[in-house]
Amino acid sequence: MELWQEFGGQPPIRILINYWELAPDDLRARLDALQREGFSHVSSFVPWQAFESDISHKLMKFLQAVSERRLSLSLILSPDVGVHALHSGVPRDLAASEEIHARRAGSGPCVVALAPRWHALPSLHSAEFMKRYWAFLSRFLGFLSDLDRSQSGVLRRLSVSVTGSFWKYYRSPGGGSFDSATNAAGDEGKSGSASFLKYLSEQYSQREFADPDAAAAQRWKTQSFEDVNRRHFAQSAEDQFRRQSEQILLRKYLPVPLEHLELYTPEADPAYLHTAVLQAAADGRAEFTRLSKLVDACATRETAVDRRVCRPCVQWTGFGGFQTLSDSERQFLLLKSLLLVASRGGAVFLEDREWRRLSRSFRKRADLLARRLAEGRLRLGASVIQVVPHLWSPAGGPWKEWSRLLGPEARLCSSLDVLRAHPETKLVVVDPALILRAEPARELLDWAEAGGALVLPQGPLVTESARAQISTRLGVKQGRGRAIAGRGGASRQTYELGAGKVHFYDPQATDWRDFAVSLIEEAGIRRRCQLGDGRLQTISLESESGQGLFIMNGTSRALSTDIHFAESVRVTDLALSLTDSPNPGVVEPEQVPPVEPARRFSLEVPSCGVLPLSVLNSGTATAVVAVSSELPSPEGEHAAPV
């Protein structure tokens, strides 16, 4: 793999090296093996505990070994569940202290079920924990500063990454579904509760909440708003954690670049906890379907901090359920993760040992796909964005319908910074649990006035100043809107605003189907295609010449189906257009009879298969159909179809 300039030198497939586990000779041998395979970049966590007790200077030797081979390196600093170390790298004395464990209300500590053992997660609200963590970051900054003075060449290709840490894993395992109402995230332990009360006091002392009088601020603190306030508090705490981490690292002089990641480990998700327990007690194999659904849920969430969108990343560990899956299942999950996050500028993390377990032919094809994603030739846009109070708690209102109709083109975000990064977005929905303040309301109305469709909930979660601004700009008091009825209470009131529209909806509605379909059609959002078999999924990526369509079969059997388009199109095997040189495993165009444009095609997708199609308008160019993309594997190795 070459250095990925489109991603600031960060490739879509990032290989992890656990330097603290390796003897010097083993470390050098692994780096040499990766270099021979063509990698020019490696990544590594810096376990907090390992750094504090590094009397052998393993990190220093690792940096030197990487520099000698002219490899680029990214070091991930935040404590994260995917670190292959006891207690996720947290110092033992802190991990063992029950006083600082994060807790769910009435359900005990928040735990993570990953080897080498299950452990309770510490609270990132704990003053004791965070004081030690800030000291760790300061010591690491001093370590880099010393290197910059004495061995500056070692840092030439180094970058530092911080993540969202443990926040997204503070959820109850109850319900089993990622978006179950029981899975709302938040730490309600001793430290978390104290921080929540402090947040309420500071938040509602602001002038905007004292309108029209000082007594109005008390309304926002009542029990009826507790769930809403806890969601806002959880997101505020996570954002502050990111900002403060960055401030400490940049406090003096950080001699290397810094990036923010939204790193997610499906195997550690609380929604997978009960499944992991049952599987371990039975045959020891992970539940492939649940892990695949968790990747889908992760792909719909997008994070930003201070106007910068965090790179979405998925990690598959070498010590969780992923390693117990079959070859084809692991390959399917890797390709799916790569398509969903690398098409948005993100990456997939995998330990070097897990990468080598994959067949040689699969590694080559995954590398080819990653190159094209890094070049920006395949991009995943966001047609609909729903703004939520907390990214890792369940979304309300019509969200499930957006997700069902548009898949990963529907996105959740907790910051309008994400909206600024997606000029292609046509529909923005405000979640019914979001407290809408004056400044965000102004920004959303400006966006709608420029030609977008804004959907706002009716209800009490609007400040008086925001309500007055909305009423004035829309002419609500003059009755300029028009009512549109819907089933299940999903009616809406629509107002014209400049080149766009603003719609109001009732959050208590029960049937969102017609509501979502009508708004998608009005906003001009085209649903790419429709499959005849609901067991298949599609990921649609925009390409230079049209559309890259990936049909995904996550079942254990081959599936035959029809694919329907709204207009006549030409279809070709996308693998042909992505390949720079002839591939002996792919059917060449001249070997396949040309196919006339049509609105319907018959497909057969192999089990755990990913079928790549290029879709062109009927008048664009002559194309062929090559629907069987199962490539023969060299040396008899098994490879998932791609």
Q: Average the pLDDT over all residues and give the rounded result.
A: 85
Backbone CA Rg: 25 Å
Give the tally of β-strands. 25
The helix content is 25-40%
So how many helices? 19
Note poorly predicted spans: 1-8, 580-594, 619-642
Q: What is the level 1 CATH name of the largest domain?
A: Alpha Beta
Beta content comes to 15-25%
* Distance from first to last alpha carbon: 19 Å
For the largest sheet, list the strands in their spatial order.
Answer: 8-14-13-15-16-19-18-17
Largest sheet: 8 strands, mixed
The fold-level CATH name of the largest domain is: TIM Barrel
Q: What CATH architecture of the largest domain would you give?
A: Alpha-Beta Barrel
**What is the domain tally?**
3
Which term fits the overall shape? Answer: globular
Structural class: alpha/beta
What does this protein look like?
By secondary structure, the protein is of the alpha/beta class. The chain has three domains: 3-177 and 244-374, Alpha-Beta Barrel (TIM Barrel); 384-524, Rossmann fold (3-Layer(aba) Sandwich), CATH 3.40.50.880; 527-626, Immunoglobulin-like, CATH 2.60.40.1180. Helix content is 32%, strand content 20%. The protein has an eight-stranded mixed β-sheet, with helices on both faces. Strands 1-12-11-7-6-3-2 form a seven-stranded parallel β-sheet. Strands 20, 21, 22, 23, 24 and 25 form a six-stranded antiparallel β-sheet that branches. The protein starts with 12 loop residues before the first strand and ends in a 25-residue tail after the last strand. Mean pLDDT is 85; it is low at 1-8, 580-594 and 619-642.
